[in-house]
């Protein structure tokens, strides 16, 4: 099946192991459009794994994930992922221009939309300070982008992708509080039309969430 007008994600009685190693037990939540769900928990508690299950990189051994009532297994995987913008803990930067590194998330975007996404991700001013602005090649910078700059380029991609579901895995871990605040405000501005899941250790990031779940030893607590 194909997804249209996504309104809700439900995770029900989900259990997941990597082979013998049990990671998640009895996870349950419902996320409706217009809301931000925060997930926190210690390193290794299974937060990134949960996002990967939502993108169907793996299937749960028990329980199910449904979008608009449709089991993930019944949804065309490409269609599922087209509806998701995903920001990982590591942003991969290609040896191309900065512009190319952002527009790759949505080839149909206009220049104005690229710039707007960069502004939402608090990276526009930095880009304008580069010798050739958006046309600066990453190689010209000696591949010297900082982790926080890379992370913000990843976030600009996610905004440009314009998917109804946004999954963010520690999106602000390398950012100072000013850049973080700008990005969190951009998420708040976008959230009415989105379903957002935000994984973070930071209380400042959790503050924008409508609901928060904590995972401890693979269980919700
Ligand atoms: P962090 O806060 O450090 O990012 P996390 O909560 O995102 O941690 P996960 O990456 O989901 O944690 O990992 C949960 C557990 O599953 C960890 O014990 C990890 O070592 C293990 N794990 C993760 N990926 C795999 C894999 N591909 N194969 C086997 N075990 C894995
Ligand atoms: Mg993780």
Automatic annotation (TrEMBL):
Residues in coiled coil: none
Domain ABC transporter, first and last residues per copy: 9-221
Subcellular location: Cell membrane
Superkingdom classification of source: Bacteria
The protein's name: ABC transporter ATP-binding protein
């Amino acid at each position: 099946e194909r997804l249209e007008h996504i309104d809700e994600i439900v995770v029900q009685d989900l259990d997941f192991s990597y082979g013998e190693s049990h990671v998640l037990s009895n996870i349950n939540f419902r996320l409706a459009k217009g809301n931000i769900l925060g997930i926190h928990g210690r390193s290794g508690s299974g937060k990134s794994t949960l996002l990967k299950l939502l993108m169907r990189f793996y299937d749960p051994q028990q329980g199910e994930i449904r979008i608009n009532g449709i089991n993930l297994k019944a949804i065309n995987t490409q269609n599922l992922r087209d509806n998701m913008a995903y920001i990982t803990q590591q942003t991969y930067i290609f040896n191309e221009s900065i512009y190319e590194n952002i527009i790759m998330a949505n080839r149909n975007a206009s220049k104005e939309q690229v710039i707007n996404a960069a502004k939402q991700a608090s990276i526009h001013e930095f880009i304008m300070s580069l010798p050739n602005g958006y046309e600066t090649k990453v190689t010209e910078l000696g591949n010297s982008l900082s982790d926080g700059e890379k992370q913000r380029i990843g976030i600009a991609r996610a905004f440009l992708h314009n998917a109804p579901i946004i999954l963010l895995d520690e999106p602000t871990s390398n950012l100072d509080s000013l850049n973080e605040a700008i990005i969190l405000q951009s998420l708040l501005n976008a959230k009415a039309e989105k379903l957002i899941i935000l994984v973070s250790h930071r209380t400042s990031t959790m503050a924008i969430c409508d609901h928060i779940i904590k995972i401890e030893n693979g269980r919700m607590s």
